Automatic annotation (TrEMBL), chain A:
This is Spermidine/putrescine transport system permease protein. It is found in: Cell membrane. The keyword Cell membrane applies. The lineage of its organism: Bacteria, Bacillati, Bacillota, Tissierellia, Tissierellales. It is a multi-pass membrane protein. It comes from Keratinibaculum paraultunense. SUPFAM superfamilies: MetI-like (SSF161098).
TrEMBL record, chain B:
One of its GO terms (biological process) is transmembrane transport. The lineage of its organism: Bacteria, Bacillati, Bacillota, Tissierellia, Tissierellales. CDD domains: TM_PBP2 (cd06261). Belongs to the binding-protein-dependent transport system permease family. CysTW subfamily. GO terms for cellular component: plasma membrane. It is found in: Cell membrane. It comes from the Bacteria. This is Spermidine/putrescine transport system permease protein.
Length: 263, 277
């Protein structure tokens, strides 16, 4: 059929569009020449240099440490907050939910400058702490928003039943509520991690001397020309992610469907 | 169960890190001063300053570029979402995964990689000259910024539309077909109206970041290319006029709010979980 052919071509073109720059990145990570656009033979030297480049390794370290810390902390705060908000009476629930929406609805540049203004106002020194706090702040709303639907799906009487049977509220929370909403917690944590690792704008305004992440390093490099070492690093990250995904995919090919909707 | 108390730490967090900062931005936008809170004076000058044709131009350019990229992502993304939603479940999941994977590569780097493709000696011009055609000037202009936006935000249009499309009850389509509706009619009368919540989510998810971006315009538009996001960045990190920068932020927030208000009018099904996407 003709329309089937058109569909195939269309799909191919869209994916080509999405992947063209990634292919370029990967190809040029093996390029002998430093300048982009000129192919000068195959080499692995950028991969060797990557492990000697302290600027980039430091940026990678901060990117990962902030992503891990902020996703863990925002998941913990967000989980409790979601359970608490769910148990609130009508009006205060509405107010809290609307406030929670603000960082989601606001352009990230506004969130970024408002946090920067706050930190300057209360005279906090810019650096690791300000970056971490701002990452947690913009992650929590997404965690809450991914947990709330799971709470709605949960049987209201489950926790009550547990307490009737003698469980303390905390025990009921730990043994009944949290396991029930676990899929929401996991996807919330994944969203928080992804947001943090890819963030540029929020970090850019709330970074301090000596503390940068990969995005900021790439941005500052863009002016003087990107070091191909960055290409090598991204290729490695891309490949490891791909392998991880393939493993997850083969282990639970039906479960990923649910998760694929969220992320 | 009195669980609401465990939300109190976050409520405190929200007040400190969401409410107070926005209050400060609002305060700054209506004041002038040397940064010392005791010396501030209330004024509307920051907003009046924005009425300068130079800034109105920037605002207009930002909005029109964001609108264009929203329309293009919708036109490109809707058929894509349709195609994916009609595949069998296994193929469908792989295709969606293929849409998500690029988002896990640093977006600055992906955007920057377009320079290699679009540049004067880039890949596209290389092919054009091989074909005996004139090389094109593809970079540091409106078109390049637009391409960067479409490239970065296309998944945000496809994913919400897709997630609505797969939830459409198949029996509705079958019923329409049984009653004699053609393919076109099924689409215009059933599929499209039912997918509107996804389109609305997609539009807000593309328009918002597009209107506020300053990175894409900086990388692909060259140094001198100004959008409203660049203007804010410049006021806060360049010239240091935080009062004017705050005023622009407030104006941008208002634009977003207006957009949200307009789009939510078309969205009857506000309760759906399709908000995230």
């Amino acid at each position: 059929m003709v329309s089937k052919g058109i569909k195939k071509i269309y799909t191919f073109l869209i994916f080509l569009f999405l992947y063209a720059p990634i292919i370029v990145l990967i190809v040029f990570s093996f390029n002998n020449s430093k300048s982009r656009g000129v192919w000068n033979g195959f080499t692995l030297k950028w991969y060797v240099e990557l492990f000697k480049n302290e600027e980039i390794l430091m940026a990678l370290y901060y990117t990962l440490i902030i992503a891990i810390l902020s996703s863990v902390l925002s998941t913990i705060i967000g989980t409790f907050a979601a359970i608490g908000i769910y148990g609130m009476p009508g009006i205060s629930k509405k107010v809290v939910l609307n406030l929670n929406y603000l960082p989601v609805l606001n352009p990230d540049i506004v969130t970024a400058v408002s946090l920067m203004t706050l930190f300057r106002f209360i005279n906090v020194e810019f650096g690791f702490l300000t970056m971490l706090l701002s990452h947690i702040t913009f992650s929590i709303p997404y965690v809450i928003l991914s947990i709330l639907p799971k709470l709605k799906q949960m049987n209201k009487h489950l926790a009550e039943a547990a307490m009737d049977l003698g469980a303390t509220p905390f025990y009921a929370l730990r043994k009944v509520v949290i396991p029930e909403i676990m899929p929401g917690i996991i996807s919330g944590a994944l969203i928080a991690f992804t947001l943090s690792i890819d963030d540029f704008v929020i970090s850019f305004f709330n970074k301090g001397p000596g503390v940068t992440n990969l995005s900021i390093t790439i941005f500052s490099m863009a002016r003087r020309g990107i070091n191909p070492v960055i290409n090598a690093l991204s290729t490695l990250m891309f490949v490891s992610l791909l392998i991880l995904l393939l493993i997850i995919n083969s282990k639970s090919s039906n479960k990923i469907g649910e998760r694929g909707d969220i992320i | 169960m009195r669980t609401k108390r465990i939300a109190y730490p976050y409520i405190l967090w929200m007040i400190i890190f969401i409410v107070v900062p926005l209050g400060l931005i609002l305060l700054y936008s209506f004041t002038t001063g040397d940064g010392d809170i005791r010396n501030i004076q209330f004024t509307l000058d920051n907003f009046k300053k924005f009425l300068d044709p130079r800034y109105i131009d920037v605002l207009w350019r930002s909005i029109s570029l964001a609108l264009k990229s929203t329309v293009i992502t919708l036109v490109l993304g809707y058929p894509m979402a349709m195609i994916i939603s009609k595949e069998n479940i296994k193929k469908r999941n792989v295709m969606i995964l293929l849409f998500v994977i690029p988002m896990w590569m640093n977006f600055l780097l992906r955007t920057y990689a377009w320079l290699t493709l679009l540049g004067k000696n880039g890949f596209i011009n290389y092919i054009l000259t091989k074909l005996g055609l004139e090389p094109l000037n593809l970079i540091y202009n409106d078109g390049a910024v637009l391409l960067g936006m479409v490239y970065n935000f296309l998944p945000f249009m496809v994913l919400p539309i897709y997630s609505v499309l797969i939830k459409i009850d198949k029996s509705l389509i079958e019923a329409a077909e049984d009653l004699g509706a053609g393919k076109m009619k099924v689409f215009t009368k059933i599929i499209f109206p039912l997918s509107i919540p996804g389109i609305i989510t997609g539009i807000t998810m593309v328009f918002m970041p597009a209107v506020s971006t300053f990175v894409i315009s900086r990388l692909l538009g060259g140094g001198q290319y100004m959008l409203i996001g660049n203007l804010i960045e410049q006021q806060f990190l360049g010239t240091g006029d935080w009062h004017f920068g705050s005023a622009i932020s407030i104006i941008m927030m208002i634009i977003i709010l207006i957009t949200m208000a307009i789009t939510s009018k078309f969205d009857k099904d506000n309760e759906g979980g399709g908000r995230l996407w």
